[in-house]
């Protein structure tokens, strides 16, 4: 018997489950991997792109429409490059993050390219949309996209061709551990959904689930509801580590029902970020639809996004009004509003000549924790502490969300955008260059949702969420070890008797 046939048999015995393709992991084993030569090419091309975009940023001798088209083309090339060189293609963690970054920051690009009025909510927004701040915002997004791709390339620089079969079998033997993580993830997800529903219902009764988004925010302000979203994302990603059946199927089904109502309620990122992370984990154990199927489905989703906007503003009754349009442009423009935060932050430093924060928004979580312990009288309320970027944006520009691009610029300028996104690429590239063990996937569950959430939100909750998730992973992993030690101890006592 050859090693290949022996390995296939072992994989079949270990992975086969009803409704699953038992050897899907073996097929993925033969997928192309990023070679050293390909990584070097990506690095050199990326460095050239960084220089070109930086020169454009400094000279500002380009039109908004041409820059928008340029950055979109760069995004497509970068996503395609990462997808072609990832074991699971476009569904791998690295390209998934880049797609999310592009959707939430370049949604207004079609309006620039085609010269369409985006119907921005405030007349003042047209000042940056039509002026130099719009161009610089797009170029900063371009720097972030290229820098992130560079980080992924560096992370995978020493990746080999597809691993040997024996290595892959060693990883896949951990299926029992994977099921343990997935079952505990289902419990966490189900409990999180129950807590979310209880808090929301206590705040506004059944009407809160069908009312406008602003009413939902007002009724749940100050509650623990925002903290449940990280729990839901963490639980969902753990749950899909193993084939979805039994308790896991119930938990995922409950999440999808929650997602349907929550999405139309206006909770876009709270739904899309966990789903994006979960999809990248599912791709590790089964083949997902090709890109063209996703593109067609994406058009339908964009129409749903636009419907969600109408519902968020006026409830479900708004769908029958004349203001509803199913245009994909309207929908993607609705998602891509994070560039407003980039333009707003640019205006603080480019127009008002304010100093950069030099890391204050990244260290504020630790700083405020220390202040609470040693100097509680000096600790400002969160709404007044402008080291919290979400507080500063809300106070100076309104409830327009956040942006990872804007926050990195706010701290260190254009160089900060490059450095921060290279680091993000290094982290997520590490989860995309090889086949992952149960431990690694569980760690990805703790990291992925907070980082995806940071795409359009403040950095403040990222570190606490990752630490809490990592601690939960450690506890879940240690429970079987503790149980085994207890069993061994019991056997030893019985032998002594």
3D architecture notes:
72% of the residues lie in helices and 0% in strands. It has 497 residues and is an all-alpha fold. Helix 8 runs parallel beside helix 20 and helix 17 (338-351) crosses helix 20 (404-430). The longest helix is centred in the C-terminal third of the chain and has 35 residues, at 462-496.
Write the SSE topology:
Layout (H helix, E strand, L loop, with lengths): L2 H13 L8 H6 L6 H24 L4 H21 L8 H13 L3 H6 L10 H5 L2 H24 L9 H8 L2 H30 L8 H8 L4 H15 L7 H19 L2 H15 L8 H24 L13 H8 L2 H14 L8 H15 L14 H9 L6 H27 L7 H17 L7 H35 L1
What integer is the average pLDDT?
79
Main beta-sheet annotation: none
Straight-line distance between termini: 47 Å
Give the C-alpha Rg.
24 Å
Order of helices and strands: HHHHHHHHHHHHHHHHHHHHHH
Total beta strands: 0
Query: What class would the helix/strand composition place it in?
Result: mainly alpha
Discrete helix count: 22
Q: Judging from the principal axes of the Cα atoms, what is the shape?
A: globular
Low-confidence stretches: 1-34, 160-174, 316-324
Helix content: over 70%
Question: What portion of residues belong to β-strands?
Answer: under 5%
What's this entry about, in short?
The protein has helices at residues 3-15, 24-29, 36-59, 64-84, 93-105, 109-114, 125-129, 132-155, 165-172, 175-204, 213-220, 225-239, 247-265, 268-282, 291-314, 328-335, 338-351, 360-374, 389-397, 404-430, 438-454, 462-496. It is an all-alpha fold.
Question: What brief labels describe this structure?
Answer:
globular; mainly alpha; 497 residues; 22 helices
